[in-house]
Amino acid sequence: MTGSSNLTRAGLSTQEEFNVEISDFGFEDAESYFDALWDEAVKITEHEEAKRKLIAIVEKETLIKEITPFEAFVLVLKTYLDSFEEREIRQSLVKILEENGYTPYQYQLDAVKQALAIIENSNGVVIADVVGLGKTVVACSVAKELKKRGIVICPPGIIGDRNKNFGWKKYIEEFGLSKEGWEVWSLGDLENITDFVNKHKDIEVVIVDEAHRFRNQDTKDYEYLKNICRNKIVILLTATPFNNRPADILSLLKLFITPKKSSITLENNLVDKFKAFRGTFDRLGYITKYWNSPNSAKREKAEAYYQSFFEDKTIDLGKVAQRSHYLAKQIRDVIEPVTIRRNRLDLQNNPYYKNEVKNLSKVADPKEWFFELTKEQSLFYDKVIGQYFGDPDDGGQFKGAIYRPFEYDVEREKIASEKLSEKDNRQFIQQRNLYDFMRRLLVKRFESSFGSFEQSIRNFKRITEKILEFIRKTGKGDYYKGQYILDRVLLEKIYVLELDEIEKYLTEYTEKINNGEYPKNHKIYEINKFNDKKGFIDDINSDLRMFDEVLTQLSTLDLVKNDPKTACLLNNIRKEVKQKPAKGEPKRKIIVFSEYLDTVKYLEPILRKHFGERILVIAGDLSAQKISQINRNFDAAYPEQNDDFDILLSSDRISEGFNLN
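RESULT FIELD:
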């Protein structure tokens, strides 16, 4: 035996241990020593009975023993069940829930127990129950059981008010966390949060609501958050953990797991595993997008990818979809040990929870309300979706040059042949993502309402005009000698800001650079150094002409006033309001949510014209009075009920932090 020194009496004498220096000599001495011991050793296999017992011990009681298929199944089952290990919780938690009007559902209490066990093993947990099952209650309960000080990072719309009547401030007050020093911060204030955490060393827990917003690792905000979470217990809340790219999911896991020393997979290296996932994801996406492309190079590349998967050049999108589903399952299997994810169907089928689920509000299947477009409106719709703001690879007209100047700065051939450096490729991807985001934003605005779309087109036109004027002004009248400034922060804000806030941010940024106020993290582009300076200016002017064309058609068709979608909404609300409630059921209430504040403002005068003061509108402002009105009129469980309103019209910001069942 060789190794560390055992300088005890036994080690130096009776146990036959010795020390050697690892070098090129000493082998013969060690061999001679071993042979002498071997010759003097007691023989244990000479007698048949002793030999039989020894073999039986080796085969049945050591690590190389043979196991039956049943024993293997039982071991796997035990290991799987152990992964759902739970920790006990205090009865005082149940009391807190009851005192604050919450029903202590067993499925939530079990989630708390499971989360505590996951945190003990992995130092973090992803709580991803579907909307309406109480992720916030579970997170607060876990925080209470941990008995440590922490912070909550969430979107500004659900922070809450000073009086702690709604949002996260209300929750941490109800669970007694504010007494323990907990604070609530906006996810837009990460730099100040970093300073706060560095100054307050007793912060040990970080709760991140809507954690999916931090899916991009190549942003300053993600870096701030990662530093905030370092050496902390991390609780991530998201309703969409799987609706992302593999790299996005890895970004969330890295907030509390060391990716190259992970214990949630056998390989212990999440980076390599997700790198493989990403490769598969990207190739499958490429096949789906370009399998029938008119561009022969892209089509052939898609065929080559397909052949690498299925050993066949004849592309079957059904097989691609199946392979994509399998990839999604692989990713779910990886994150399952640190994720709590249930939907209503899971609870209904669980014998322990099915009875209490009956007490939850029942979500009926959605009903389709169809509306018809006139022939002219239909043609315009197709033009907006396909021609004006369609995919540029399919001939989309929107150039968006001001969002992707890098593509005009370098040789197009380098981009096409994928010969960019790592740094340049990052710039290209970031700016192309910004451009795609803005293009999709306009399409989503169009699908939301004609009024919202018109306002966005006017905003985009004004922004583009001011940027062109800035280029002319810095070039002293010569566009080709001017400068263009891209705010690098904008490249990151698209991942964390609300859609309305992004458009507002862009407008304010344009105003500032025209006034000579440049953002800290800006990139100055010299137009005269562009590889395609003429194309850059021409494409900006092309967008301006397109915006004018869209506004002209909106005016000619009078779409803002003759919006069939709004008419459909109005007619169906009338029908719903007139319906008499079933026996034992409360009076019907209507809630209209929109993703966009402009749509809310567009709908307000139309709905108020027909429903008068029976409609409550939340258009960005959330005063204490309006919070009370929401609770008293639209929360069926609220102790003090009023019947002042039949309809609630709001942006979807209040979908979190209020019980609207």
